[in-house]
Amino acid sequence: xxxQNGLTLIELLITLTLLSILIGSALPGWNGLIARSRLAAGxxxxxxxxxxxxxxxxxxxxxxxxxxxxxxGEFGTSSGLVAVLDLNDNRxxxxxxxxxxxxxxxxxxxxxWRSFRNQPHLRLDTRGTVYxxxxxxxxxxxxxxxxVIVSWIGKLRSERHPPNC
Length: 165
What we know:
Shape: elongated
Number of domains: 1
Helix content: 25-40%
CATH topology: minor pseudopilin epsh fold
CATH architecture: 3-Layer(bab) Sandwich
Structural class: alpha+beta
Number of helices: 1
Distance between the termini: 72 Å
CATH superfamily: minor pseudopilin epsh domain
Number of strands: 8
Oligomer: single chain
């Protein structure tokens, strides 16, 4: 008896069809996972920028963390943050101030800052505290959101949140 082992063309087509259906149904879940991972990485970058700004400003000058591309006078929707050593202490990013850090996000990610006192920036004083200026940075990407919360004493934490950008 000469018996051959293998797959027929019909068996191979059925297997490929089932495999493509399974991959197609799992793809939306992967897209959400990728978006949430990017937001978590972005919130970690924001926390890192705030910690770097705190370390740079202690004993030197106040530090402003504000929307990139602005003079720290307003914060609408942005795609990045900048940390500025405010050497003349006028709460603006102008001539003579020193940029000490920057975080930029891709165009699909939106960033907003909301504070209790409606300040257009986060300000760290020369002791590294926020002087009762609590608020949060909200990162939004599609249907996903991540919040970086700054407490009134300057403690930082991050949490997943529905987007409200």
